[in-house]
Amino acid sequence: MKMYFPGFRIKALTLSYDDGVRSDIKLVNLLNRYGVKATFNLNSGLMGKEGGGKVGRLSYEECQALYVPSGHEVAIHTLTHPFLERLSYEECLHEVLADRLTLQKMTGQEIHGMAYPFGTYNDMVLKVLREAQVYYSRTCDAREDFSIPEDFLRYYPTTHHKNPRLMELTHKFLEDENKEPYLFYLWGHSYEFENEGNWNIIEDFLSLASFRPEVWYATNITIVNYVNAYRGLIRANNTIINNSNIDLYIEVEDKRYIAKAHSKIILD
């Protein structure tokens, strides 16, 4: 059995940007112009304060006005951006849950995604995330590949936008005639574009990667939920059962099927 992304697409693209800074306003506008989805990881305890590069952080009200109607995902980045592995279990749990609860109040949506502050974690942090019902968390360990993580609590991105090979990797992602699903994951901080005067990096990337019919553009959580739903399919003889609430696009023995949510299909 083989997984496709929605519409029998074989490629997916997602972005992730951290800290809830003022330059996200320009980034959100660019993403919307190109029809590309992203996840924004916010520290609710630092909203409206200095920091986050030289551009400063958005206030609670500004975050609500920018991200909530945008169609992009809001995710946890902890309350105050500490090194989580240096905290006690209780302190770590508070950093995650307090941030999550504030962001859920701000967005009116359940939040199950996260990015690690500084990209660091240990077994204790992983235990906290499982207890807190965090479904995925992005690291900073870019692997320059397009594989789908086996464990989404160790969600390795493809590349940071500062990578000199960014456009080379993008061309490879778009031009490869891959048979298995490809996932391109770009991450960074939008204040880097502002501070370094290189907004052209993200604009060139979006111009090349957007509006491709073979690519599914989705937020982090949308991709995680889709893959987990696929991994939860049950196959019994010539029947496939989809207990999730997501329609899944699959191939079995060279035949394509749409496994509708909460239903089963009988294989030909």
Structure overview:
The chain has 268 residues and is of the alpha/beta class. It contains eight helices and 14 strands. Strands 2, 3, 4, 7, 8 and 9 form a six-stranded parallel β-sheet that branches. A three-stranded antiparallel β-sheet has the order 1-12-13. The protein is globular, with a radius of gyration of 19 Å.
Topology at a glance:
Blueprint: E1 2-4, E2 11-18, H1 24-34, E3 38-42, H2 60-67, E4 73-76, H3 89-107, E5 113-115, H4 123-131, E6 136-138, E7 159-160, H5 166-175, E8 182-188, H6 190-196, H7 200-209, E9 215-217, H8 220-231, E10 234-236, E11 239-242, E12 248-252, E13 255-259, E14 263-266
List keywords for this structure.
about 270 residues, alpha/beta, six-stranded parallel sheet, three-stranded antiparallel sheet, about 30% helix, globular
Give a concise summary.
The chain is of the alpha/beta class and 268 residues long.
Radius of gyration of CA atoms, rounded to a whole number: 19 Å
The total beta strand count reads 14
The arrangement of helices and strands along the chain is EEHEHEHEHEEHEHHEHEEEEE
* Sheet having the most strands: 6 strands, parallel
Shape designation = globular
**Would you tell me the overall average pLDDT?**
97
The share of residues in helices is 25-40%
